[in-house]
Here is the input.
Amino acid sequence: MRKIPFLMLLLMGFVNAQKLTSDELSIINQGDIKTALPIYQTTDADQHKTLLTLSKEIDPVDSHTATLVTRMKESLLSTDGGVGIAAPQVGINRKVIWVERFDKEGNPLEYFINPVIVWRSELQNLGPEGDLSIPEFRDQFYRSKVIQLEYVDLKGQKYSEIVEGFTAVIFQHEIDHLFGILISDKKEKEKNDSYKKVDAYKKSDSTTR
Here is the structure.
């Protein structure tokens, strides 16, 4: 029963998904549709602004969505060891990502349309992350060890699955991109968070339990 509101919300999202703008179509269809789209960089002011913009849902059955998905894969394959990419990184603020599935045999690349993380484990892992859009930046980040993901494919078919480990980290990283969240800003925010050190063995002044 708890999933019904989400499914209704997801369906409404498809119905109300705005059509791709002329600017978006221009980017998606520029040049050979079988070639990689340029990857946006934070070092360019206009591209950085796009990377910080909240992404909208996309119509999964629109033929232009299929073109975007294809070209995003080529963009990812053109990198030196990239394991994931989000549509904002090619200039399109829409909810589409590619992820390398290290949790599957052969580590296949898979696309996900309108992905939503509906649950995250409180248990977290600390690990290194870099970003195709942020030159020479790499740091350690905490991410939930397990997530539950819901998404659709190019036919509009809905899926739900549990993902864990390094693949879950990639999903969280790429979905952050859809909310305009960059790991460089994330690290800066974490620096401003204060944590109070607690001595678990310090004797309490209270005599009650």
In short: The chain has one domain: 33-191.
